Amino acid sequence: MYSTPDTAHLYNHHKDLSANPSLYLSGTQTPFPDRPYEDSISTLSTSRTSTSTESSGELLPLLRVSSRPKASYRLADFIIHQTLGTGSFGRVHLVRSKHNLRFYAIKVLSKDKVVRTKQVEHTNNEKTILETVQHPFIVNLWGAFQDASNLYMIMDFVPGGELFTLLRRSGRFPEPVSKFYAAEVAMALNYLHHLDIVYRDLKPENILLNFDGHIKIADFGFAKRCSVTTWTLCGTPDYLAPEIVLQQRYTRSVDWYALGVLIFEMLTGFPPYYQPERNTNILYERILQGPAFIRWPAFQPHATDIILKLMESDPVKRYGKVDYGAGDVFTHPWFSEVDWDRLYCRKIAAPYLPKLKSEGDASAFEKYPEDEVASTYGKVCYDPHVREFPDFEYTSPDTYPPRQVSEACGFNSSACM
């Protein structure tokens, strides 16, 4: 997601989208495609804030996506147009390349704030994971660099805005629309899990809509390689599985639990354990009580069943559990009309198309005061965090520390190289 809007006032809209299932559903279910994926911003915290307070088995190294070869970028390569979103660590800008004239989103993070909030590992993980994944429903990271004050990540500009915004404007989605978005999310999660990546921050704010209406999952700040279990308390409260709330070890199945929450929220406009006071203690009590205590609307039976199967409190019984893979998710009767091959290839028309006037149209995003913050980027100054982000290339200046800063501060450059 790009922005951090206050969402409390948006829960009262009840305007539905068109619910024509023929837009994207086939008559019979096709097998889930078991093949390599082709094609593939993460940003900042939201009003439903993602939080974090890590252990996993041995993992093979991830390989960088060959179709996105490593290249050097610098701030001077881009023209900054406007702010797309702000957050605790910095902001995201819409930019245009001076070379190919394409629009991108650049996520700018203050190194000092990342270090002070102990998010160094998460930030480095985000960069490493995004540069090694490629999937139609996940954003591309094209490059990353740093200067003395900030980290920069160059990503796809996804112009349709957040699914969260569309959902709040609509109030709730008809079941076929919810199924369309849930199916695309499920394919992306399954891809990540095959790479031993647990996403850990699924929510409508982190699902962006591309120009063609198909999704791009963003914000990999809490994503992590995990072959067996991990135990960090992180994510968005409404979407936390019971084992995370209990601070127990958990597996990648927490992402499938979150998909159940997402389906419920798309169908009703509210998360299943929503309470207006936003008291997390009450929320966690309800999560631990389990789906039996949810006040269920009049869902179609298959919809209720898949939510129950995904939100199963016992991870061993939950659909998508690590031991057996996610076949039970994709073969569930609720998804019976989905043509998985055509959906993967984006040959199925999306239920909603963003209304865009031009290639760089950012009207789907909230307006933010610019505050001339971009003029502070790239300043030459002392960097106390030079060792913290080794995979972010120094391109402004070309090496660190710059000679004039070293001499002025009595800084021993050899100690940091």
TrEMBL record:
Enzyme Commission number, as recorded: 2.7.11.11
Keywords assigned: ATP-binding, Kinase, Nucleotide-binding, Serine/threonine-protein kinase, Transferase
Pfam family name, one: Pkinase
Signal peptide positions (record): none
One biological process term in Gene Ontology: signal transduction
InterPro entries per UniProt: AGC-kinase_C, Kinase-like_dom_sf, Prot_kinase_dom, Protein_kinase_ATP_BS, Ser/Thr_kinase_AS
Protein family according to the UniProt entry: Belongs to the protein kinase superfamily.
Database matches in SMART domains: S_TK_X, S_TKc
Region named Disordered: 35-55
Protein name: cAMP-dependent protein kinase
Start and end residues of each Protein kinase domain: 78-335
Reaction(s) catalysed (UniProt annotation): L-seryl-[protein] + ATP = O-phospho-L-seryl-[protein] + ADP + H(+); L-threonyl-[protein] + ATP = O-phospho-L-threonyl-[protein] + ADP + H(+)
GO MF annotation terms: ATP binding; cAMP-dependent protein kinase activity
Source organism (scientific name): Pisolithus microcarpus 441
AGC-kinase C-terminal domain segment(s): 336-404
